[in-house]
Design brief:
Length: about 220
Amino acid sequence: MFTFANPLVINLKNYTEISGDNSLKIAEEARNVLLSNHKDIIIAPPPSSIMALSKTKVPIISQHVDDAPLGATTGFTIPEIVKSHGAIGSIINHSEHKIEHSQISNLVKRLRELDMISIVCADDLEELKALSQFSPDYLAIEPPELIGKGIAVSKANPSIITNSVQMVKSISPTVKILCGAGIVDKIDVQKALELGAEGVLISSGVVKSASWHNKILELSSVLN
């Protein structure tokens, strides 16, 4: 099982900027930063790019997996298959791809059995409390209204991070909290860490930046 102290998780989503071989280019930039500062950087590309990006030696996770079996399951993203393509884990229940809590529970167990990490997303404290009981490796608090807006949750609603950490640790002490939504610079990352987060989940703040290398370097520089 891979372990990361304070990871910078970059979700490439399906932005135009990473179409074609651009997803490989951003992974190569992340690799160069990783080799220079030895920080924990993880990339979540579209499923079609997982195999190509895994060859860069940057840790790669899937943006989503389905609670469906191996075999005749056309169109589903299967944990065992993404692992065979080089993924070391997956995001689960992103606000743009919500699934039933029963499926989340099954997927967390399934990924653990495969020695893959699970990053489960929650919209608010109520959902975070419910998902904590499944003991994923990471829980990411991402208020949907702040995603892609350039307003970091650590600024807009700092108490949700401190409350999240306290709540999760009281239920499942081993789960690590990631801060997502609206992060754009190292000040946002630093503030999230000061509030108790143990890493960040970011997307447009990197993908739509003027320089992928410089932005990844900036954001990762304040991580332990």
